[in-house]
UniProtKB/TrEMBL annotation:
Any Gene Ontology CC annotation: cytosol
Name used for this protein in its record: Diphosphomevalonate decarboxylase
Origin organism lineage: Eukaryota, Fungi, Dikarya, Ascomycota, Pezizomycotina
Region (Disordered): 50-71
Pfam family name, one: MDD_C
Family named by the database record: Belongs to the diphosphomevalonate decarboxylase family.
Catalytic activity: (R)-5-diphosphomevalonate + ATP = isopentenyl diphosphate + ADP + phosphate + CO2
Domain Diphosphomevalonate decarboxylase-like N-terminal stretches: 12-183
Keywords: ATP-binding, Lipid biosynthesis, Lipid metabolism, Lyase, Nucleotide-binding, Steroid biosynthesis, Steroid metabolism, Sterol biosynthesis, Sterol metabolism
Length: 351
């Protein structure tokens, strides 16, 4: 009937890269200059919950509500996701005339993050992954996670990795249309279930330079960038996949820290320079170095995205040394406890 509402819900978790995506060879399709690799956090940790619905009774414009506030859906990223998903639904409807014609109905998307959206915690990754999967479920598309990663990538590059759990790669691909630029699972979370991620919210402020602008300027101006994209990252991708396969934390940790440093070095080498790390970020690096020095080996590894917040990876058996020391340094903790680690939320004064 004309008032019928069709609906589907899903959740998608945040992922935190250990080999960073930084650089676009095609900004429209979000095709990267290098492959990347991340760990998807547990569903109980940071995640976006999204409900997609459509109805002939809705106002004619598509809409997206995030944490209760209306978002602009007219941008090319969101439009690309809507367009691709509608085209797939249309194919199904053309092949099965008895199916309701959902592809021509306005969409209403309602999303909630269970973490501060402004905190620069890869919220766009979970957001676009959840949006794409919710609409695919609504449309009852037979798409695989790989197919959905190809669509979510056009929303936000890093979002393609949140379609898989555990340890996830994003193959840069070489096709001009992006057909081979998709995410793949390196190993499920159960392969190395002891992995933990501690998230230090150094600043809840929105990032100063957006990842898109930052990437474009780095690619255009950094003299360190070609070596990173063409030599360093391809080598480390292979080493990282082996480290994960062998559950070798020392190798995993060292590669994670060195790749974060390499990424932020190309940011500093950008002109004008981009500074994502601040004094508190550098203090967090010092704490990790002190922990590793005391242990006599790498038991904790920091990484930073396009902002000052630290993510520290460690194994459960090192909980006391790692989370314990951070808590001691930070004082009374204020955060969440999740399956995949304990996240400590503090203000900049904390360290
Ligand atoms: O997906 P975007 O455009 O928000 O870019 C994410 C870039 C980094 O978070 C810095 C690295 C990564 O691989 O997630």
């Amino acid at each position: 009937s004309s008032s019928e509402v069709y609906t589907a819900s899903t959740t998608a978790p945040v992922n935190i890269a250990v080999i960073k995506y930084w650089g676009k060879r095609d900004p429209k399709l979000n095709l990267p200059t290098n492959s990347s690799l991340s760990v998807t956090l547990a569903q109980s940790d940071l995640r976006t919950h999204t409900t997609a619905s459509c109805s002939p009774s809705y106002p004619p414009q598509d809409s997206l509500l995030l944490n209760g506030s209306e978002q602009d859906v007219s941008g090319p990223r969101t439009q690309a996701c809507f367009r691709e998903l509608r085209a797939l639904r249309k194919q199904l409807e053309d092949a099965n005339p008895e199916l309701p014609k959902l592809s021509s109905l306005p969409l209403k998307i309602v999303s909630e993050n269970n973490f501060p959206t402004a905190a620069g915690l890869a919220s766009s990754a979970a957001g676009f992954a959840a949006l794409v999967r919710a609409i695919a479920n609504l449309y009852e598309l037979p798409s695989s996670p790989t197919d959905l990663s190809r669509i979510a990538r056009q929303g936000s590059g890093s979002a393609c990795r949140s379609l898989f759990g555990g340890y996830v790669g994003w193959e840069q691909g070489s096709a001009a249309d992006g057909s081979d630029s998709v995410a793949f699972q390196v190993a499920p979370a159960s392969h190395w279930p002891q992995m933990r991620a501690l998230i230090l919210v150094v600043s809840a402020a929105k990032k100063g330079v957006s990842s898109t602008t930052g990437m474009q300027t780095t690619v255009a101006t950094s003299s360190l960038f070609p070596a990173r994209a063409n030599e360093t990252v391809p080598r480390r991708m292979k080493e990282m996949i082996s480290a994960i396969e062998n559950r070798d934390f020392e190798a995993f940790g060292k590669l994670t820290m060195m790749d974060s440093n390499s990424f932020h070095a190309t940011c500093l080498d950008t002109y004008p320079p981009i500074f994502y790390l601040n004094d508190v970020s550098r203090a967090a690096i010092k704490v990790v170095e002190a922990i590793n020095k005391k242990a006599g080996r790498i038991v904790a590894a920091y990484t930073f995205d396009a902002g000052p917040n630290a993510v520290v990876y460690y194994l459960e058996e090192r909980e006391k040394e790692v989370a314990g020391l951070f808590k001691a340094v930070l004082g009374e903790k204020d955060g969440w406890q999740g399956e995949r680690g304990e996240r400590v939320q503090r203000d900049a004064e904390g360290l």
